[in-house]
Input
Amino acid sequence: MTHLPYVMAAYALGVLIPTTFAVAAFLRMRTAKRRLAALDHRRRR
Amino acid sequence: MVEAGSIVATPPGKRNPGRSLHRFANPGRFLRLSGAVLPWLAISGAVLTAIGLVWGMFFSPADWQQGDAVRIMYVHVPSAWLASAGYLALALCSVLSLVWRHPLADLAAAEIGPVGAGFTALCLLTGSIWGKPMWGAWWVWDARLTSVLVLFFLYLGHIALVRAFDDPQRGYRSGAILALIGVVNLPIIKFSVDWWNTLHQPDTITLTGAPTMYIGMLWPLLLAAIGYALVFAAIVLTRTRAAVMERRIRALLMARADELPS
Output
């Protein structure tokens, strides 16, 4: 395969950048969901 | 004559678009709907992207001129389309925010900005990686490349402006105005390869004409593009859900602080 390092670098970025955003968004949502559930629970008591 | 500030009822039979849009401004309804859609978006996006990229890498033919470097296209072209489409979505949210004061549009716009900037950075980086073996340079001040760089700076400007004010509403409003001004850059990006003599190749896929690309390359490209678009939507939806929950958390904490005896 010609230009393999260039192709591999582009593919690595193409996987890495969206995955980073996806994982960060998921963790942020999970944290928010937990905090909200804890606050709602405390409010109901 | 209608005086400014007076309330006028919508005549029966006439639909008020702002009113129907506000049905989706209810945070509870948004969280319910988006929660149902999100897993499907994320899974189908990841699967289609993986199929498109694997097909493009191993099963699509090499280009007779560019060799295997053409495989960079399966990452570069979808990210370029999404960079522009993301900005268009940002501008649409800005219109919803400025005209109809739609509260979710403000949050969505603030969450589209960083994701759009990420995909624009991906487009610029993969373009640079493609440019080195083909043009012999990582970067040239070509009209297409420069206009996409301007788009990247517009995204960064929007991100900074939205967060620059103590009052979030002022930030959202200023960001919306910047987003609408920046829309002028989208046709410049699209037609830059026609208006100027650029090193960047002209479009091989257009909305009106038949693609000039071999079908064995077109299919993986379209699959990767649809997959990346779904992933983009899933990320924005997840971030917007988080933003809605964070706003609710702030409201609860403020309410509790008010209840405390002074």
Remarks:
- DSSP finds eight helices and no strands in chain B.
